[in-house]
Amino acid sequence: MTPRRVVITGLGPVTPVGVGATDFWNALLEGRSGIRRLQAFDPSRFDSQIGGEISGVSVNDAVPKGYRKAAKIMARDIALAVVAAHRAAVDAGLKTKCLLERGDAEGPTNVDSARWGANIGAGLICADLPELAEALHSASTDGVFSIARWGSEGMNNLTPLWLLKFLPNMLACHVTIVHDCQGPSNTITCGEASSHLAIGEAFRTIARGVADVCICGGAESKGNPMALLRQSLGGRLSKRNDDPQHACRPFAADRDGTVISEGGGLVILEELEHAQARGARIYAEVAGFGASNDAYEPSQPSRPHPQGRGLALAARKALRDAGLEAARLDLVATAACGLREHDASEAAAVRAILGGRSAEVPVLNVRAGLGNNGAGSGAIDFIATTLAVANATIPPAFNSAPLDPAAGLKVVTSGPVDARLEHAISLSYALGGGQNAALVIRRFR
């Protein structure tokens, strides 16, 4: 059976520089940064005190009135996913259960719930420390924690549904309940590669005829003390606390680490004829997907292969899936976030893919103003790449100059640049564990 064509009809980015496709795209064109001193908690005891935070988003603006009480059991990651889902569904012109109840759409629904799937990437959701504080205090005697008292007294300070705030599958759970998605659903937790893997699975689901529409992508918030501590102990963070907007410097010669962030995005993928039948606006087409795993050094799982072996393999698989030669690529969207070894590994992978064209093909990177959004990073990159193809414009990587000459890439550092883009590939990899993924995006015609 010939695989069905899959197109992109809705974009729902939720990022520190903009929420919604229009605001996000304008921020990229302007080279706007969302990195600042952290406000959600006091970071003064940490070496790195900066990150990307999102303000002005509310779950109440993304769910029906009768569902608002569920916000009490939504961690920050879940709330971001629910907001992203609402933005994506509205952008796609879908008439879902949620949008009809809220008055955001009128008329009969235009999507069959039984044929609507969901694949969402999620991270390790950190427990809310203020919630745990009283419980831990109750379970301690003279400052010594007692597991016995935790069971008898400590847990009494937590609500019965407390755990539901911190399960990674709850992002997809709330999104599918709110929008009545009854098709195949899955959660993927593979670090920064999660979103690409989720989008790829959704692409496959529609292509093989199991669903007509899928909402997919990912979201994560690293804007909490535990996440900051984890990244700090891993030696991944820039300490440019006095110059936060220039701290994250992908591919730059003077890069010294990344910054934590929060955000992500969900997108609507749709079978072509289904989208055309309802008169949907089509951004672009998903043409291929590839994935790989390359745990290069088991004793140091966060260390990337110096030649980007696994990422290059994923990219070649995606190109083969799309029936496309690398010589026909017009844009490579990278995931580089300012980590010296990882940026170098990805640059090597891109050179391996492009061969002699590595100094000619434009390279897109949007991480400078966003930082590392964990499981949401890939969705943001995918959305940026889709908008670049749809608008025939490449936004600038504004913190990448002076470019590391060893990269050997044509990173767009000034712009925006007008460019007719027929085919683009978006790359993603986890900072630990070896997961890699790539998606080929084709201009719709």
Set out the fold topology.
Elements: E1 6-15, E2 18-19, H1 21-30, E3 35-37, E4 50-52, H2 76-92, H3 97-102, E5 116-121, H4 129-138, E6 140-141, E7 144-145, H5 147-152, H6 170-179, E8 185-188, H7 194-207, E9 213-221, H8 225-233, E10 260-271, H9 272-277, E11 284-293, H10 309-322, E12 331-333, H11 340-354, E13 362-364, H12 377-391, E14 393-394, E15 410-411, E16 417-418, E17 423-429, E18 435-442
Parallel strand pairs: 4-10, 5-8, 5-9, 12-13, 12-17, 13-15
Antiparallel strand pairs: 1-2, 1-10, 1-11, 3-4, 6-7, 9-10, 11-18, 14-16, 17-18
Helix pairs in contact: 2-6, 7-12, 10-11
Radius of gyration: 21 Å
CATH class of the largest domain: Alpha Beta
Helix-strand sequence: EEHEEHHEHEEHHEHEHEHEHEHEHEEEEE
Helix content: 25-40%
Distance between the termini: 22 Å
Total helices: the number is 12
CATH topology grouping of the largest domain:
Peroxisomal Thiolase, Chain A, domain 1
The overall pLDDT average reads 94
- E-strand count: 18
Estimated structural class:
alpha/beta
Strand content: 15-25%
Number of domains: 2
Based on the coordinates given, report the CATH architecture of the largest domain: 3-Layer(aba) Sandwich
- Considering the protein shown, what is the CATH homologous superfamily of the largest domain? Thiolase/Chalcone synthase
- The low-pLDDT segments are none
Largest sheet: 14 strands, mixed
What is the global morphology?
globular
